[in-house]
Amino acid sequence: MTTRRTRPAPRPPEGTPPRAELARQARAVLADAVRIAHWAAGTPGPGTAAPLAAHALERAATALELSPAQVRAGWDRARLAGLVELHGDTARPGWRLRAWDRDDSAVLRGWVALFDAWSLVHAAPEGIEAGAVAEAVEAVPQVLSLLQLSAGPVTVPALLDLLGQRVAELHEERCEVPLGPGRTATAASAAPAGTAADRAATAGPARSADLNALLLDWALEGLAAVGALTLGKGHATLTPLGNWAVWVKLEQICVAAQSPAGNIEQSAADMLLGCARLTPGPARDEYRAWLAARTVGSAVAELLAVARGEDALLRGLAFEALRVVGAPAEPEVRAVLAEPSLRPYALLWLAEYEGNDPDDAQDVLSREEATWLWVDTAAAVADHGETGLLVRHLDSAVQGTVPALLDEVRAVGHPRTVQVLVALAAAHPDPALAKAVRRAAFQVHTGGA
User: Are 85 and 331 in contact (CB under 8 A)?
Assistant: First the structure.
């Protein structure tokens, strides 16, 4: 087992309120979302899917004495914070809602999920290409770091300068060379008239500064909307909640930088391999640190790309890392249910996300899905584990008997079936059982019955 150097538990910056006070502030930010979540969870029948159906919006506004705009905003926040979960057209209370009044940690995790999703809470200005918006989102962590390190108000021009520098670095990292003045003028004269954002995106360095200013305003307003900062005349200041959240993420990055493998700078595949022999707690710490250094969207996409690969061990570990992501990963995980190789993992992830006990989550799998997962897990053990583990893995099969298992394994169509059966036959100490397993492997290989 990998050993990790330990260090004293980090202390938050001086002046940071106690966790109970931070949780109180988070509850205040999400008060409307909690009210709407309770209303939606207690309302039978369809109509509470996203976006909120018109008749449900009117009923909620009347029942809660809120404006339709407040209901719509609160509903979006409730979903992003994990307070409600959607099952078709029906909303159910999320585990965080059930723990809301008694568990400060659940409250803070819910608020951090909302904080991570700030760009979804506050829609980007119309007419700006998605790439420019994505760059701004990727640059915001540096803006937040400056606000946190300054421990007070920071002027908008200073934040704009930092945002521009970070965007330029992103372009340089991607080897994007700006167009020259002649080329820019030609492009601008050929482009049709449009919105100010359209023209800002195509008009060269001066317009690029205008675009950065527009995107910075949007980012600051979005962060203010989730309670992470306050806006004054020409300056911005982190709230205690925002200051604490940024400090936590910076600490996670520092922990990863001090880890033996330096996982923060690794690709998702290398990071997961580096965590393979860690116990669950330290592995989750590594996942959190790796995630903290990336935007949620790009991290989830990279983990799912690894899960689609041929290494079954990495597939399982990718979904373990996605459990640490939590609510922001839910739409992407739900979207892969149609992919046979990922469906069993996604079903288990969603079952646990929706509050099922991990020991009972297996009940959501069909017999075929459970068998497919058994083969996939056996492939991971055969590739990376010890012989004894593969033999003991027989006990986890749902079939109960080896002949029934072999019949269903042959039918499930997993691409690694032959290799798994050959490895199991070689490892098992019972000659008769090993012979039966080898025969099954041969039948799968030749396509016989």
Answer: no
